[in-house]
Each structure stands twice: as structure tokens, then as C-alpha cells.
Amino acid sequence: MKLNVNGSTHEVDADPATPLLYVLRNDLELNAAKFGCGLGQCGACTVMVDGKAIFSCLTPILLLEGREIKTVEGLGTIDSPGPMQQAFIEEQAAQCGYCIPGMMMRAQALLQSKPDASDAEIQTTLETNLCRCGTHMRILKAVKRARELMKTAAMAPASGERKV
Amino acid sequence: MKFGRFLTGLGALIVVGVAGAFVYAWKPKIAPIKPPDRGSFHQALVEHGAKLAAVGNCTACHTNPGGKSFAGGLTIPTPFGTIYSSNITPDAETGIGTWSEAAFQRAMREGVGRKGEHLYPAFPYDHFTNVSDDDNRALYAFLMTRQPVKATPPPNELPFPLNVRLVLAGWKMLFFRDGAYQVDASQSEEWNRGAYLVNGLGHCGACHTPRNALGAEKASLHLAGGEAEGWSAFALDGSSPAPVVWDKDSLYTYLRQGWHPDHGVANGPMGEVTGNLGLLPDSDIRAMATYIASIMGEPSAERRAKSDKLLEEIKSGPITSAISADPSASGGKGAVIYEAACAVCHENGRPQPFGGLDLRLSSTVHAPDAQNAINMVLYGLPAASGRTSAIMPGFADVLTNDQLNDLLGYLRQHFTDQPAWTDVVQRAADTRTGKYHVSVRPSDGIERGPSNIGAEDQ
């Protein structure tokens, strides 16, 4: 079946019951989303579908025909990180980094639909994503920074060209 | 001029009738008092009141999730319009600070506010009228010693004539009988204690009894299943949808700890109820279980045998589905979704309350209507704040209404002997648009300030 990931269409040869996470990592070699618990309880596998944050470990690809899937790879590149990535770098929010892609995608989904989300809304939204290192405060700071960077990026003529 | 005399007579009758109605409907104002000092209440009485307030689940309606305790302002949608709960903190200006104990007793017994205004029956005085004077005194002591909060709820949004409180006198005349609990001498003391708690302060029937067109509980269908905050409140009588028959012991366990291995975890507004009941002594919980078990009655031999057989089958693990997980097969799409999204928890053998329930045991999947199943799949069970609790992720952002219909079709076919639900797509659409306002609550009970992570109104 066909899957639309980060703006391009991929022909995937997999059982329709296969969770999206496995297809992303094994078939498409997009390794940002992580396997954590496999139960939708930790959030490490979070990606966006049609602008909403979902657990890719619990989502069979059967459900995704014709829908837009976005992963951290779709937020920017190493040379030209997107505002969410830039904010996480500037705040040095990662320790081991395993939860970070999930955190980023859930935060991205929130700020895309609600650019002025309050600090409390950010905290509540990220409730479903766990971090075992304890960098929560930095993660929250990074998302707040991303909230500002995304506004600047939205105003700038060429987005994603911010110099590090 | 016979006709003229008739008209005069009729006119006189109407005048007398209206005047009579006014006399019936009119309730005197009770003089305001200066808010009493904390020291004027015995600590033991306040503590007793705290337990009673937990039975009454007062906080569920009188506190906005994340707001100040008992300050009111919670949106309560009704078929007639929207009501906002009142501030029952002892603030003199905006709460009940100027209410004397007599005014509080009258509100509980008759559903009349201090100024003589009739109260809307969203405040379940049809149950609270059963509460004893002594218990009301303790409740009063508890509420009057809470932190006063200055907060005025938004005005109710009710159409004319329902916005005129005098019409409530008519409603009361039709449906409300005041009076303290009458002991049934033919029953045990424990049964009577249970009936007092269940039908009085506990007001279980407010959710679990169906209501008539005017919003009053149908007395002939006592605890036969109703609705609450966008959820079906399952029948507590012989028509309970539970696949394993309830008994006194399992009801006790469920009410005591908020879950039971054969029935799963309390969710929706019931999570608040079991959370609140945590304050009660075991003896009161046992009394409630005793009374509800008697309402459920003895199951038929056939039902008992089916229930026993199911418990035996459960022990040998999950069953293989007759429906192949192949999207092109009939029912196959639902099977695919179940296998990928649900089975990882619901068939992994982790025990209750933290594992997923084997859906052969689920009342939700066996229920007459699909509402609770839709709510569970869309919104899940949020995590409680700061403690271990059962959780389930929601799938609202993944599943379309058609896909949800595929999934629920499979669950009914594979896990129950019940007919398919036929209105899932429409119901799911109405649930998402907020036509059915759904309270989503964590399972461990009440999620009220200072932080509020889990509770949400959809």
C-alpha cells in the first residue's frame, strides 16, 4: 500500500496490521521515532498524522492510507533544523535523547494547531510522553522556546534557514 | 346568564388555583448569619462530615477540574439547558457563608435555597431528602470549615419558563416527596444502612436510574440503568450487562478499590465515585454492596452457569478469533485494528488493574448501547496526577468513525453473544462534535486541584 510520509509517497510492502512504527524504522529507515513500551504508554513512538500526535506503535498502517504522516525527519535537516529542533538544540534538552523525538512531535502538533498554547497547556499535552532521565524542565523550556521560534519562522520569508 | 356565571366561577377558580399554587410554591427566606468560626464546630463532627461529603460526591459537581475546591462553576449540561454548579464554600458574598444550619438542612431536605428560592434538581435533593438531621449537621460543619472562595458561577442558560424557579414547585409537586429515610424492618441493619447510603447521600440513582421527559427518575425503574455526563450508567438491577454476575463480595471489592479482576476498572464519572468512597469505613462499603446485591437479586441458574463457564475459559488465556485479520474478509478490518492497537494490552496477561481487561469480561463491550465503548476508544483512560493508576491511550486522532465502527463491530462479534450496535458511526460523530458532552476522568478517582492533568471535558 501507499503511505505519505514527510511529503513523499512510499510504496510499502507490509501486512496491513503492521504498526506504523515498524514500517517507518524497518522499511523506510526513518529512525527518529523510537520503540519504548509498545503499549502507547511512554510516547517515544509519537509521530504526527494529519497534524495530530499519535502513537505509531499502536497504529496499523491499514488506517493510514491517504493520510499525511510526519516524523522528526520532516521537521528539518541537520544543516537547516526546523524551529522545534533548533529549540531543543539551544536548550540542550536531551540527555539520553530516547524520548525526544516523541516529545518534539507531540509539541509540534500542539503548537501547529495552537501557536499561543499556554505553559500549562504544553505541560498537560506532554503528559503522555515519559522521560526517564529527568530532563523535563529542559524539555518544557525547549518547547516554550519553540513556541517563540515558530512565530518568528512563520514571519520570516524563508523558513528553516536560521543559522545555528 | 348561566354562561356568564360559569365564566365568573371559572375565573374565581383560576384565581384561587394560582393563589394556592403561589402559597404552595412560596418559601420563606431564612435570615442570613455571620459566617461561623471554625472553632464553633467540633473537630470530630467536621471529620465525620468529610466522609459524608465523600459519599455525596459533592466535589464532583461543585468543583471545576483544576479549580478551587467546592467553589462551583462546573458546566452541567442537561436536556433542558446548561446549569452551572454553585459555590458551596463559606464565602459570605458568593458562597453559603451566610447560611444557618437550618437553611442548609432545608436545602438538603426540600431543595430550597436560603432566600426561599427553589433549587434545580440537578442538585439531587430527591435523594438528599433522605439524609438524617445528624448527618446534615456534620456535612454543614465540614462545608462551613472549608476555605472560603470568592467565585460566582456563570448564570444558568435555561429557556423560559424553566428559568423561572417558581415552576420548580410544580415539578416538586409531581415528582418530589420529602422526608427522612424510613427503616425497612423486614431487612437487616446492614441492608438498611446500605439503602440509606445508596438512595440518600450516595444518590446512585441520579445516574443509574432512567429519567422521564421532565427529568425525574422513573420510580418504577429504580437503578435499572441511566446516564451520566455522556456515559451510560449501567443497570444495577437484574438487567446488569456484566458477563460475570456480580455478588455482594465482588461489589464490595469494586467499590472499595475501584476495580475488580472480573469486571475491570471504574472509569468515567464512576472513577470519581470509587475514588471518593476511599474515605469510607469498610462497614459502610459492605452495607452498600449488600443493598445493591439485593437489588440485583439472584441470577437465574442459566445466567450463573454461563458466568461460571466464562470464568473457567478466561483461565486458559485468550481465544483465537474465528474472524481472520484480513482487511478484505468480512469483519477483518476490525480484527486488524484490534490486533495492532488493542491486543498488546488486552491480551498480554498482565492482571488488573494495570493490565488491559480481557474483553470477554467487559460490561462496556456487552452493554445495550455503544456509548461507553465509543468514549473509551476515543478518549481512553487518562493517567492520574502523581500516582500509579490504570491508563489507556485514546484513539480519537487515529480512528475515523468508520474505522471505529469496524473495530466495535469486531469486538461485539468476537467477544460477546450480543447483536451488533447499529448506530456507531452517527453516535461517534455526535460524540466528537460535543453533542454528547463526555467527562473524561482518571480511574483512580478524583482529579481536582491543585494540579489537574487527567480530567477533561470533551
Any overview of this molecule?
- The complex is a heterodimer of chains A (about 160) and B (about 450).
- Chain A is an alpha+beta fold and about 160 residues long.
- Chain A has helices at about 20-25, 85-90, 100-115, 120-125, 135-155, and strands at about 1-5, 10, 45-50, 50-55, 70.
- Chain A folds into 2 domains: about 1-70, Ubiquitin-like (UB roll) (Roll); about 85-155, DNA polymerase, domain 1, CATH 1.10.150.
- With about 450 residues, chain B is mainly alpha-helical.
- Chain B has 2 domains: about 25-175, no CATH class; about 190-455, Orthogonal Bundle (Cytochrome Bc1 Complex, Chain D, domain 2), CATH 1.10.760.
- The termini of chain B are far apart.
- The model of chain B has no long low-confidence stretch (mean pLDDT about 90).
- At the A-B interface, strand 4 of A face helix 14 of B.
Q: In a few lines, what is going on in this structure?
A:
The complex is a heterodimer of chains A (164) and B (458). Chain A is an alpha+beta fold.
Q: Within the largest sheet of chain B, what's the order of strands?
A: 1-2
Per CATH, the superfamily of the largest domain in chain A is: [2Fe-2S]-binding domain
Number of extended strands of chain B: 8
> Which secondary-structure class do the elements of chain B indicate?
mainly alpha
Task: Please provide the count of β strands of chain A.
Answer: 5
The radius of gyration computed from the alpha-carbon positions of chain A, rounded to a whole number of angstroms, is 15 Å
Uncertain ranges of chain A: 159-164
Using the coordinates shown, work out and report the CATH topology of the largest domain in chain B.
Cytochrome Bc1 Complex, Chain D, domain 2
- Determine Rg of chain B (CA atoms, Å): 24 Å
Q: CATH superfamily membership of the largest domain in chain B, which one?
A: Cytochrome c-like domain
Largest interface: A-B, 23 and 23 residues
Order of helices and strands of chain B: HHHEEHHHHHHEEHEEHHHHHHHHEE
- How many structural domains in the coordinates of chain A? 2
Mean pLDDT of chain A: 93
| Helicity of chain A, as a percent range | 25-40%
What is the count of helical runs of chain B? 18
Structural class of chain A: alpha+beta
Oligomer: heterodimer
Distance between the termini of chain B: 65 Å
Subcellular location (chain B): Cell membrane
Binding site for heme c 3 (chain B): 342, 345-346
Domain Cytochrome c (chain B): 44-147, 189-296, 329-415
Region (Disordered) (chain B): 435-458
